[in-house]
Amino acid sequence: MDTAPDAHDALARANAASRLAGGVAHDFNNALTSISAYAHLALSRLEPQDPVHADVREIVRAAEHAGRLVSQLMAFSQGEQAQVEVVDVNRSVRDVGRLLTVVLGEQVELDLRLANALPGVHVNLGALEQAVMQLALNARDAMSGGGRLVIESAVTDGRVLLVFADDGPGMDAETALHAVEPFFSTKGAVGLGLTTVNALCERLGGELELESAPGIGTTVRLHLPAVEPPPSPVAGRRPHAAGTVLMVEDEETVRTVVERLLSAEGYRVLVASSGEEALELAAAEPGPIDLLVSDVVLGGITGPELAAKLKTRRPALKTLLMSGYAGTPVGPVDDFLPKPFSPFELARRVRRILRP
Which of 62, 77, 166, 335 would be 139's cystine partner, CB 3.0–4.6 Å? Predict the structure, then answer.
């Protein structure tokens, strides 16, 4: 039997699904960019003691978390390597813990026992947070009648140790032996929960250790290689920015908020909703344009194409491209900023590019 047509159809469906996922992610990241930016702007106007301050802070955290999930899903669907960074494990656990208190429900008590002065771990932040969430949900499902989940962090033998201990019914030795196998479950459902967490540990050069006994509960230990975090930047008053920025974005909500953010930093901002409009603005501008900030996908000419056209007339022009799609654009680019991003990250990237 010739299976080539079936394989071709399957590949075509996979490619179509990947393109669809990319388009959805682009639109979703545009929405998250606006949500995060406006929440940051609102936060900057509130005193820390204001009761609304904590609520807006949670909006910011939720938008950041959603952005990491989209990035991780896109990297998975397109076979890309997710971005890694030095991560504060304790902070990640606390951030996810805010969601877990809701997800675990009233019958499961969450007990965080996090060590002080924990070194960092070189990992994709979204993957780590998903691992924490998955292990917590596994514990919740095991404790159908309620119980306690202890999440503990420590440093042992130069590694960061992350422990998840529940007081559920536990598993016998034979069941525990198969717990990390794909699609294995004691609850009648199938999934890849422990399998993906185990794969994450192996990619990092760490290991997952599972210990369980009937009537006692289950403990999962993640042993992760530790790294020293980069030095913190020296605090100080930021100089007021100066310069002219040509900002091009076809999504109105993103365009409006990015213009506000750049103007608040002290830049003179020329705003265009398309590449064609940007070319007209640049041609009519008598003075220098220091930086082009543009979305990659604009509906007409692309951001990289726009940058190339502008640089033929303005060779000193710097370029910062932003996009809600996965991947890094090719072209005359000084920096690339994936969506969603915070106002602080946008300002930092612009200052770095325009630094004398």
Answer: 166
